[in-house]
Design brief:
Elements: H1 4-12, H2 15-23, E1 36-41, H3 61-72, E2 79-82, H4 84-92, E3 100-104, H5 126-132, E4 136-143, H6 149-166, E5 170-181, E6 184-187, H7 191-202, E7 211-216, H8 221-225, E8 232-235, H9 243-253, E9 259-264, H10 266-269, H11 276-288
Parallel strand pairs: 1-2, 1-9, 2-3, 3-4, 4-5, 5-7, 7-8, 8-9
Antiparallel strand pairs: 5-6
Helix pairs in contact: 2-4
Length: 292
Amino acid sequence: MELDGLTRIRVTDPGRIATAWAARRRRPLVGDDGRMLLIAADHPARGALGVRGNASAMANRRDLLDRLVTALARPGVDGVLGTPDVLDDLVLLGALDGKVAIGSMNRGGLQGAVFELDDRFTAYTADEIATRGLDGGKMLTRICLGDPGTVSTLEASAHAVTGLAQRGLMAMVEPFLSVVEDGRVRNLLDADSTIASIGIASGLGASSAHTWLKLPVVDDLARVMEATMLPTLLLGGDPQGDPHDTYAAWSDALTLPSVTGLVVGRALLYPPDGDVAAAVDIASGLVHGGAS
């Protein structure tokens, strides 16, 4: 299907989305090597459209979908993380066959909002993830000791972890210790703060059997990874420097215990040279082997 057909289907035959999910060819969560590379595309739903200083880089949905289709077609890309609007388009395009699909659950903490840390669950529920045949759910869990909205986010994350575990589905928790400075939320990206966030996130929910962590690549990451036995995917973020330095940092991090792969969005979908396929191939080689 071409991108031009997506709106027509939503107007004339919206039930086709459910049909496409039911017909989607699924795969095991991880392959034989136990590693995973996911492409992240849940940023727009939180009002975060910027990449490397371009505040509207992700605003063009046709362009974003085209980049996602290119990335998902590359060897070694295991799947995608996104909100329902993005994943529904991708499943209609046939881009999710044989891929892992992780639903982003809480997008209520809009970037720059006064309520940003009261990060309500406004997208997928555990029930809908199971019904559609997705492979898991992800929750951003920012922990600010000075903001009362944090406790609501923690409670909602705990319920989501429990609900996903009951259905045998991955619960991907992305924790940060955060502070508010001059009205803006800032995540603390030092080793000790990351370790504290790991301890809090790991204890969420009634079962940890299906809990995975999504963590930033921070200094002293080897010591950070000593804080957990949970499978961990490292997030790519929005690197500002030389991509080769970013790839080198990922390569070193992927050798650490419990590190199982990468979740990368902007760094691969919007590389400085514009070559999505080449950037994805480098990341795939780092995760699964076979690239320099």
